[in-house]
Amino acid sequence: MGEITNVTVYQAIAKQKLPKMIYDYYASGAEDEWTLQENREAFSRILFRPRILIDVSKIDMATTVLGFKISMPIMIAPSAMQKMAHPDGEYATARAASAAGTIMTLSSWATSSVEEVASTGPGIRFFQLYVYKDRKVVEQLVRRAERAGFKAIALTVDTPRLGRREADIKNRFVLPPFLTLKNFEGLELGKMDQASDSGLASYVAGQIDRTLSWKDVKWLQTITTLPILVKGVITAEDTRLAVENGAAGIIVSNHGARQLDYVPATISALEEVVKAARRQLPVFLDGGVRRGTDVFKALALGAAGVFIGRPVVFSLAAAGEAGVRNVLQMLRDEFELTMALSGCTSLADITRNHVITEADKLGVMPSRL
Predict the structure, then answer these.
(1) Which top EC class applies here (predicted)?
(2) What pLDDT is attached to residue 361?
(3) Which residues is 126 bridged to in the sheet?
(4) Fewer beta carbons under 10 A from the terminal one: N or C of the chain?
(5) Are 236 and 275 in contact (CB under 8 A)?
(6) What is the DSSP pairing of strand 283-286 with strand 305-308?
(7) Is the pTM of this model over 0.70?
(8) Cβ contact 83:90 at 8 Å
(9) d(Cα 71, Cα 56) in Å, to the nearest integer?
């Protein structure tokens, strides 16, 4: 493949290496995949207003998330079933995140359990939660995450039903028989049956609670002291409800464009959410980040940090732990360079004035200069 100069190269390598069913599961989006493309393309429509003749000999990218100090505002999003990508799966991702001094979010549907991931050594880890119909299962899972030293719950709120992922339907996607959803092993929920369409869609229809509502966010707060991040908010209305219901933070996410097609790119929805949050809680961005420039754009529009998903699974498939480490390092290096060339020496220096969006160009936003 030649030299790996940016994170997107890993996707091409993963496509060559992985069985079609597995690659398609990671790579595809819902229905027409308009939002999948838009998650990337929307970044390309945001331009920079760099400031010059500023001393950028020292650059500090460190930040804190929910009180935890991390080396950079780039964290790992929850991605399911990582052992399909590489035998080390979530273990490798956890070690890479820890080595980079950043946060890993473990998926409920991981192929390694919370205890196994904790056993890889120290690190700041969040746990992504799907709410099952059987609330005892949820309670047990949250307790296990707490005991294993996880520091926050990322509650996924955009999946009462699984989006229509046509690649998975065509491929009759199912978790390979040698793997299990490790957090549910022993609960008879760890296996996925072959189905006439997508095995995952059938699993979700059978197990995930469609009645999930804001009252359940309150209920979660009664069973855990961990901070709860609400993952999947893309409107001002839901932002205000998240604040009212005691969320510790919001992750602006469209589930990697895998749920409802024709929702805006997350970078396009970010500013609406940030404004509605009124600094009452941190807002993070998930979706479409492939460059250090993307990270800078998200921070300029008010994000407290970003989460990356597909670059992690593709680099994991290509090169295991070393691949994931390299992705985190490349994004870090690109982000640092973007800061320097924009005249910013700390995250606090990155302002709304450093970018021009489509809305600015159309004069929709009042002038801020």
Answers:
(1) oxidoreductase
(2) 87
(3) 105, 152
(4) C
(5) yes
(6) parallel
(7) yes
(8) yes
(9) 18
**In the beta sheet, which residues pair with residue 155?**
129, 230
% of the chain residues with pLDDT over 90: 88
Please, what is the angle between helix 310-342 and helix 20-27, to 10°? 40
Q: What's the CA gap between 332 and 292, in Å, rounded?
A: 7
Question: How far is it, in rounded angstroms, from Cα 6 to Cα 293?
Answer: 12
Q: What is the pLDDT of residues 1-14, one digit of tens each?
A: 469 999 999 999 99
State the Cα–Cα distance between residues 280 and 178, nearest whole angstrom.
45
Task: Give residue 78's Cα distance to chain centre.
Answer: 6
Alpha-carbon dihedral 233, 236, 241, 245, rounded to 10 degrees: 60
Beta bridge partners of 230: 155, 250
In three-state secondary structure terms, 353 is: helix
Tokens linked to 233: 């908010």
Positions annotated as catalytic residues are 255
- Three-class secondary structure of residue 48 per DSSP: strand
Residues 6+ apart with CB under 8 A from 364: none
Name the least confident of 20-24, 209-213, 253-257, 343-347.
209-213
Mapping DSSP onto H, E and C, the string for 322-341 reads HHHHHHHHHHHHHHHHHHHH
Name the nearest CA neighbour of 106 among 114, 115, 98. 114
Residue pair 42/288 in contact by the 8 Å Cβ criterion: yes
Asked whether 202 and 195 are in contact (CB, 8 A), the reply is: yes
Rounded distance, CA 289 to CA 306, Å?
8
Residues in the chain: 369
Point out which residues pair with 206 in neighbouring strands. Answer: none
Both tokens assigned to 156:
């996924």
Confidence of residue 191 (pLDDT cuts 50, 70, 90): low
C-alpha to C-alpha distance for 158 and 125, rounded to whole angstroms: 22
Contact (Cβ atoms closer than 8 angstroms) between residue 260 and residue 254: yes
